[in-house]
Specification:
22 strands; Dna Ligase, domain 1; 8-stranded antiparallel sheet; 14 helices
Length: 445
């Protein structure tokens, strides 16, 4: 097993990895920008190296500084967390060239799943259901018109290198296709340096349900059941839960089998997530594969008693996985707490936290790097905490989350706690009757 792991990330996920490493007897190295000098991951790591100024491009995304930090501290592995370089094939390859183990899939696996059109072709070959659409990138708007007539409107245009809703346009009729095509390409080119666009049938009233998968270095893959991530705003998840209230035993079995096919198609190594759109008739379609740990991984851990970060490290060290699928026992919900003002169009709210009290009690978990006196930088993602609850039933989990949100005190900055409280009271959420369109008609009081 590894002697020392460098965590190429910040915030709560860096702290999360450090905790598991300590439990495994592995030394840790934190890297940090000048804006994060007082962050908890810096304080609790065995060693810490400043890798640059606040901008991500000069610190957490600057590969030479991270590799240099690993070399001067004699780290033999790097855990990338999520975001930043976690799905960067070039970074994974460079780690290998410097004889540092990248805790995650190989560069070729990341490349095959990172390009959405290639991922779709791989899934078709593996027999995984995919959304009808173009077989690859569109060469022209005229080609798009032909395909759209074949599969029927509405359709959605997507950037092949996309994420976070960038380069994505829903088109309801042919008259709007050309304008959508031009604006999607322009946005994708500006955001990703790649204006490649493909087309899919637009799924109405969809659920966003993902399957957690784990694969080892010896060709064995299992799934760890599902998470429902349908409550989201502008393609950013707000609340996740497992099991999904929309799930049936038959659907869980079929989606689990499809997710394993997806993992086996690239001989996947590590922890990953196969994401699906599920229509109102419970037909499911492959959307993408995230080749990293997910923000929402704690809810899976809580319902199957399984440390996913530990499993990542063990797999990277060459350990076999158990060879069995896992199914949820109980119900878990996660609320992402962001430093944003939900009453002011979710404007980011950086600044100093003057008072901080985390909720506790049976079945309550808080993953955070925040504390009273902590200054939230304006340079990074606004998420400052994840509140996770687990209970025997969904009804009990909702009640526990409502109590925990009420107990969660963060003062000095705006947060999304009032939004989460209202969502938990919304009848559509209470009865599990929500889709990815939930927030489009949600009114914050």
């Amino acid at each position: 097993m590894f002697k020392k792991i460098l965590i190429a990330n910040r915030g709560e996920i860096a702290l999360r990895v450090i905790r598991t490493c300590k439990e495994m007897g592995i030394k840790t190295v934190a890297v940090y920008s000048t804006a994060d000098a007082n962050s908890l991951h810096v304080r609790f790591a065995d060693e810490a190296v400043c890798i640059g100024p606040a901008p991500s491009s000069q610190s957490y995304l600057y590969i030479p500084a991270i590799i240099a930090a690993a070399e001067i501290t004699n780290a033999d592995a790097i855990h990338p967390g999520y975001g930043f370089l976690s799905e960067n094939a070039k970074f994974a390859k460079i780690c290998g060239e410097h004889r540092i183990k990248f805790i995650g899939p190989t560069a070729s696996m990341i490349e095959r799943m990172g390009d959405k059109s290639n991922a779709k072709a791989t899934m078709i070959a593996a027999g995984v259901p995919v959304i009808p659409g173009s077989e690859g990138l569109l060469d022209s708007v005229d080609e798009g018109k032909v395909i759209a007539q074949k599969i029927g409107y509405p359709i959605i245009l997507k950037a092949t290198a996309g994420g976070g809703g960038k380069g994505m346009r829903v088109v309801w009729n042919e008259n709007d296709l050309e304008n959508a095509w031009n604006s999607a390409r322009q946005e994708a080119g500006a955001a990703f340096g790649n204006d490649g666009i493909y087309m899919e049938k637009y799924i109405e009233e969809p659920r966003h349900i993902e399957i957690q998968v784990v694969g080892d270095q010896y060709g064995r893959a299992v799934h760890l059941s599902e998470r429902d991530c349908s409550v989201q705003r502008r393609h950013q998840k707000l609340i996740e839960e497992t099991p999904s209230p929309f799930m049936t035993n038959d659907l869980r079995e079929r989606m689990g089998e499809a997710a394993i096919k997806a993992a086996n198609a690239i001989s996947y190594e590590g922890v990953g997530t196969v994401e699906f759109l599920v229509d109102k008739h419970r037909n499911f379609y492959f959307m993408e594969m995230n080749t990293r740990i997910q923000v929402e991984h704690p809810i899976t851990e809580e319902v199957i008693n399984y440390d996913l970060v530990r499993e990542q490290i063990k797999i990277a060290g060459g350990v076999n996985i158990s060879g069995q699928n896992y199914f949820p026992e109980g119900h878990a919900i996660e609320c992402r707490i962001n430093a944003e003002d939900p009453y002011n169009n979710f404007r980011p709210s950086p600044g100093t936290i003057t008072s901080f009290h985390a909720p506790g009690g049976h079945g309550v978990r808080v993953d955070t790097h925040a504390y009273a006196g902590y200054k939230i930088p304006a340079n990074y993602d606004s998420m400052i905490a994840k509140l996770i609850v687990v209970a025997r039933t969904r009804e009990e989990a909702i009640a526990k989350m409502q109590r925990a949100l009420e107990e969660f005190v963060i003062e000095g900055v705006h947060t999304t706690i009032p939004l989460q409280q209202q969502i938990l009271r919304d009848e559509r959420f209470v009865y599990g009757e929500y889709t990815t369109k939930f927030m489009e008609t949600f009114k914050l009081n």
